[in-house]
From TrEMBL, chain A:
GO terms for cellular component: periplasmic space. It comes from the Bacteria. GO terms for biological process: polyamine transport. Keywords: Periplasm, Signal, Transport. GO terms for molecular function: polyamine binding. InterPro entries: SBP, Sperm_putr-bd. CDD domains: PBP2_PotD_PotF_like. It is found in: Periplasm. It comes from Alloyangia sp. H15. This is Spermidine/putrescine ABC transporter substrate-binding protein. Residues 1-26 form the signal peptide. The keyword ATP-binding does not apply. It holds the Pfam family SBP_bac_8.
UniProtKB/TrEMBL annotation, chain B:
Residues 68-275 form the ABC transmembrane type-1 domain. InterPro entries: MetI-like, MetI-like_sf. This is ABC transporter permease. It comes from Alloyangia sp. H15. GO terms for biological process: transmembrane transport. It is found in: Cell membrane. It comes from the Bacteria.
Amino acid sequence: MALTHSCSRLAIAAGLAASLTSAAQAEDLNALIWCDHADPELLEPFEKAHDVRVNVKEYEGTAAGLTLLEQSRPGDWDVMVIDAVDVGRAVERGLLAPLPADQLNTSSYFPEAVLADHTTVDGTTYAVTEKFGYNTIAYNKAKVDPADMQSLDALWSGKYDGRIAIYDYYLPVLGLVGLEAGIKTADLDAAALETIREPLMKLGAASKQVSDVVGSQTALATGEVDVLIGGGEWLTAVLNAENPDLDWTIPEEGGLLWAQSLAIVEGTEKPELALEFIKYITSPEGQARLATSSCYWGMPANKAAGDVLTDEQKAILRWDDQPDYLARAQLYPVPDADTDAAMQDLWTDMLQN
Amino acid sequence: MSIERQEKRQGAALVAPALLWTLAFFALPFAAMVMMSLAHLEGREIVQGHDLGNYLRIFTDPSLRRGIFVSLEITAVVTVISVLLAWPLAWIIATRVPARWRRMALLLAVLPFWTSYVVRSYSWALVLGEKGVVMNALVGLGLLAEPVQIMATRSATIIGFVHFFVMLLTLTIYSNLIQLSPNYARAAEDLGASKWQVIRLVILPLTLPGVMTGAFLTFVLCIGDYITPQILGGNNELTLPQLIMLQLGRRGDFPMASALSVVLMAMVTLAYAACARWLKMDRV
């Protein structure tokens, strides 16, 4: 018997209710997000313009996001940030509502960032890309030879053992290990996982730590580590003012393109407000604020944000290099549930050994 | 109505709120957690069942099993080190620090509890780092040729834990020590015991209930802690709470997280049973 567990529902509803208590006066929009959307600088203009309070809950990893949605009641969530490549998985489970494509103009987008193949299912648009960047190699150029960082090989060469940190998100890092082993992200299936087991374990042994965004930033900023695999502009950009030596590159084997998208959750009772939120986030102003969010920076999907961003901000984002980077980047792996579980098992093994 | 019956009713009425509270906020959630631990995931869907598959996996999957051992090892080391440091500290405060400074000493012992646990852990991350105060001092004094790695190791986790729990244990042992009549020590000295023998044979055994209570609290808080190993351990080995968070936050595997939590509860219960048996219950 399939069970949508009532206890989990109760816990989620109770947590949501608690977070909403203080917002009883204004209308609420409940957003399941990544941490960049929690920045008040981003949310404030929308909240003021619509006299609404945006309640956010951060989650990590598509599996966790989908589980949260599946164990919530319809109406608990209004909008959701999701990896663009995972939109199809969410649509398949009936978790996302169709978007009125005619009201979402993507003509000024970076063409590679639209990802219509992923955000559209059977001709219906379910999400719109809002931000992108790369999981690649971030490093301190004062401590390592930048030439070494042009190839992933350097991380397995022994030269940087004990000076490497691994970003604690299995999908991009497994993707990068796969690239080092000559496996494209699209081919990263269960059999390929066995191929990358040994190099992954070797990388784990060569690394000093496996850490989240904050831990990775702290390690690079304090000099605990000199190289971060899985990092990129999203990690170093916020530290640029304090330490311009923190840099990133896409090695010759390639990097992974992350592209997050925004969708309306099926069952929302505020579809109009949810759509307004998406319009705001994809507007030039919203895009510029999202791109430079205090949690992490990333390229705005909408090129028109370039009119709002300063030259300095665009330089940090490497605005002019995007065509080359986009040409060399591969999309995230899109595992089915079983492969996803196998990937997470492999990742846990790496952490424990 | 007889007086005895009336007293029974009054007693029941007085106890009822606490019982209801325990039932509502401990027994029922725990029962729900046990039920959930008997379910399993099919794809991303939770399927209720009554199988012990999750428990079987916990004890057969090397990664999960290792999480239990890592947690037990860290907790045991932290508890022993904390006791060894806290007892002399409590004894010094109770017997050697002048009365007028004692309050200040206790205040200093309590101060770490006023700081956010997360902030304290990140502070230790900075202190223990290769560019941190400890390594700078050791290298500066010539004791080390170059910095060694403490941060992102089990040692860092243990140091962070010990900092917190030494103070907790100091307070429980101190409260035990100051209740001891000085006549015990005087009597032992009159009978020819040396200072060291008085401490070893008289005072130490009499403070064991305080030590055991503090050690039990240390065990419970340490084995269930997620923050310190996550921040200081560098994710290089996972403890049981980290494995639970991994199941919840990343896999959405509520059944496995529940099973791991039940195992954690069982370990705490066993520790309590051992502690209570050792102290013959009435002294806990």
